[in-house]
Here is the input.
Amino acid sequence: MKFKLTAALAGLAMLVGAGAAHADGELNIFNWGNYTSPDMIKKFEDKYKVKVTITDYDANDTALAKVRAGGHGFDIVVPSANYMPIWIKEGLLLESRPDQMENFKNVDERWVNVDWDPGRHYSVPWQWGLTGIIVDTSVYKGDVNTSSIFLDPPAELVGKINVAPEMNDVMYATIRYVGGEWCTADKEVLKKVRDKLVEAKPKWIAMDYGVIEKFASRDFAAAYYWNGAAMRARAQNPAVKFGYPKEGFPYFMDSAAILKDAKNVENAKLFLNFIMDPENAAMISSFARYANGIKGSDKFMPADMKDAPELIVPKDLEAAGRFLKPCPPEVTDIYTKIWTEVLK
Amino acid sequence: MLSAREAAENARRQDVRNRWLLSAPSLLIIFFAAVGPLFVMLLYSVMAKGDYGDVKLWQFSADGWFGVFFQRDIFDDTLALNDAHVAIFARSVKLSLATTLITLLLGFPTAYFIATRSERSREIWLFLITIPFWTNLLIRTYAMQEVIRNEGVINTALLKLGLISAPVQMMYTDMGILFGMAYVYLPLMVLPLYASMERLDFRLVEAGYDLYATRLKVLWRIIIPMVKPGIIAGSILVFIPSLGAYVTPRVLGGGKNMMLGNLIELQFGQGRNWPLGAAISITLMAIVMVALLFYVRNASRPGARHG
Amino acid sequence: MASHFDVKRQRGFAAVAMVCFFLLYLPIATLVVFAFNAGSSLAVWEGVSLTWFMAAWNNSAVQEAAARSFAIAVIAATIATAAATMAALATTRTEPYRGLTFKYAFINQPLMVPEIVTAVALLIVFSRIKAWTGYSGLGFIVAAHTAFCIPFAYLPIRARLENMDLTLERAAADLYATPWRAFRRVTLPLLWPGILAGFMLAFVISLDDVVITEFVKSGGQDTLPTYMLGQLRRIVTPEINAISTIFLAISVLVVTLFFFISRRKV
Here is the structure.
C-alpha cells in the first residue's frame, strides 16, 4: 500500500545520500571559511579518486571546541600557529611526520623549525599573512598605517568599521597601541587596553568574518582584518587600501594537520603531501590571496600577486610585525576575560 | 457480578497498557533526542568548565550559574553584576516585546480583515499567510537582509526618490534585528488571532452599534475583549521564539548585537564555557516556561473565552 | 439601521492588512526576482537569465547538501509520522487515564523549548555518544529531526482521529474482524488524510531546520539550510537566491498539497 511507497521513497533517499560517496575514498577537511581553493580540491579529487568534503569554521576556538567535543568526523584541520601547541598538547593531532614526506623538501626553511611545531612533526604550512587595516579610501583619505583606524576612529569611519573577532590579534594591536608588550601581565597596561576596547567598540559596526563582499557592497568602510581578504576586496572595490599598523601588527600562519581520530588517515597524508607541491600551494594562494610557505610556488602564482601592496610589507614598517607566541596560561586567562567583556 | 466488573476492569487495564505500548516509540524518541539531553545539560551546568570546551566530568562547581548574572572584576577581583549578560538579557526581552508589539499592531487588523471576508476568499487570504509561515526561516531572514542592506531595496528606493542622501544603516543594528524578527514571526501572530476572530459573534457587535457605540468603542469594548485568548496565544507564540532567536540576530546582527541565543552559542564555541552556556540555556528555558504558564493560566480561566 | 451599514468594518484595517501582505511578500519577491538576474549584483538588475540556477545545479556542494536534506527529511518524517500515528491512537477516543496528560506534555515538549536550547543539549549528549561509540553518521541528525517532527505530525493526526467516531470500528469488531484487520481496513483508510497531512508537516519542518542541525552535524554533513547559513556570512551571490527559490517552490508545493488534503472532508 502507500506505506510501502513511503518506505520505498525512504530507501531511494538513502541511496541518493549514499550515492554522493561513490568515490574510492573520502577526506573530510575542517578549514576556515572561504579559504580553500576549489580548483586545488578538484585536482586532488581527480588525481586520487577521493571525495573531499570541506566544512567551514570561523574561529580557532570554534574548531577546537567542535573537535574537543568528539565525534566530529573530520580528518584534517587547519589551526593557526598560536593554537597549534594547544592542539598538540591536548592530544588532538596525529603525529603524521610530514617532515618525512616526499614533498617536504619544498617547504621553505623559514617555516620548518617553528615554535609551534618544531621540525614539523604534525603540520604543514597552509598559508601565512598578517592582520592589518583595510580602509575604503573613498570614505577616508588619511593615514592607514595605524591601529587608530579602529581604536580611535576618525569621524568619517565611525559606525562603518568591522573588527575580526580574533582575540589575540585584537589584543596584540591594542596592547601595542597603549604602549605595552605581548604577554604583559601589567595590570596598568591591561586596564588601559580594556578601557580602550570598551571605548572603541560602540564605534564599530560589526565583529564578523567575511568582509570581502561587504567592502564591495559598501556595508563596511574599514576593517581590522587579514591582508589576503584586503586584496580580494580590492579586486571588487578599487578604492580599498591595506595598512600596516606602525604600532604593531601580528603575523599568522595556519598549518594543516591530521586529527588523531581521523577515519581517512591515508588520504589525509596524501593531502598533506599534495599541498606541499609548489603548483598546488600556488593554487591555494591564488584563491585566498595569502602567501604560502612552499618554495618555488611563486612562479605558478598570478602576476597581480607578485607586486600586490597587501603582500609586500613596506621596509619602514617591517619591524612592527611579529609572530605571537602563546602566553602563559594565567596571562591568557586575563586576556580572555578582557576579551569576553569586550565581546559582549 | 463481581467477575463481570473484574473483567471490565481487566479490559480497561489491558487497554491502558496497550495505549502505553502504542505511545512508547514517540515517548522514547523524544526522551532520547529532546527531553533527556535537557537533564544532561542541567548536570553539565553544575560542573567545572574544561580548559578548551567540554566540562571536567564529576567535578562540581557553581561557576556556571554564578556567571549567568555575576562576575569577578578582572583587576581587583571584586564581585559585581555581570552587566554584559544583564544587558543581553535585557536586549533580548526588549526586542522580543517590541517584536510582539509590532506583529500585534500589524497582525490584528490583518487577521480581522481575513476573518471578515466571505468564506471562500477567506481561505485564499489565509493561504497567503500560511505560505511564508512554512517557508524556511533562514530564507526569509536572508530575504530581509536583501531588503534592508545599504544597497538593498529600501535604501535604493529612498535614494532614488531623493528622500535620503546616504543609505540608512539598518543591517547590524538592533532595528535590523527587530525588522527581521517581526517579519519572520508575523504569521505566528496572525494565525491564532484569526482562529479566535473566525468564531467572533457579530450579533454582539451589532448590539453595540444599536446602543450607538462608535466603531472605535466597539473595537475596544467588544471585539478586543472577545478575541483576547487569540491575542494572548499570538503574543506568546511570537514572544517565545523571539526570545530564543538565533538565526535572525546572527545573520542581521553582525556578531556584535547579540541576543540570548547567540550568547549561548558563544559559550559552546569561542567562549569555551559549557557550564555557563548550559546555565544560560536553562535560564532561558525557565523564562519561557513562566511565559507559557502565564498563557495557560489566562487561556483556561473561565470567562476568558468569549461567548 | 441603514442596510449598507457594515457592522464588520473597521476603518483602516483593510489598508493595514494590505500593507501587511505587501511587507510579507516584498522580501520574498525581491529574492526570487534577483535569482533570475543576469549579473552578480543583488541590487542592480542586469537582465533575465538562468545562470544562477545553472550554477546552483552544478555546484556539487549544493547537490550533496540538497540530497542529504531530502533524505533526512523523508526518513525523519516517515519515522515521526509512524510514531505519531501510534501515539495519536493511544491518546484519543478514550476515558482519561493516568499518564494521559503526561503524554500530551511529553509529545509537545519539543514545541515548547527554544530550539537553541535543545540544540546545545543535543550537542552535549551526542558528541559524547559519538566519541564513545565511534559512530558519527547521519543517524544523529535523523534522531534529532524525528524528535521535533513528532509533535507536528501528531497534531493533524490527532485532530482527524478526534473527529472520527468508533461506530465503524465497532461494527468491524462485531463482524469478527481481528483488531489489526479492523485497523487496516477501517481505521487506517479513514485516518489516511490526517497521516498524510502529518507527514507533510513533518517533512517541511525537517527540511527547514537550521539550528539543531547546525549543532548536531559532524564533518561533511551539511544540509541545505546549514550550507546556506555558512555561505550567508560570506559570499552572497544570486546563487543563494536561486537555491532559495527552488527551496521555496518545494515548500509552497508541499504546503499547497497539505492545504488541499487537510480541507478534504471524509
User: Anything to note?
Assistant: The interface with chain A takes residues 50, 52-54, 74-75, 84-85, 87-88, 149-151, 167, 169, 171-172, 254-256, 258, 263, 266, 268-272 of chain B (CB under 8 Å). Chain B has a mean pLDDT of 88. Chain B has two domains: 2-80, 82-300.
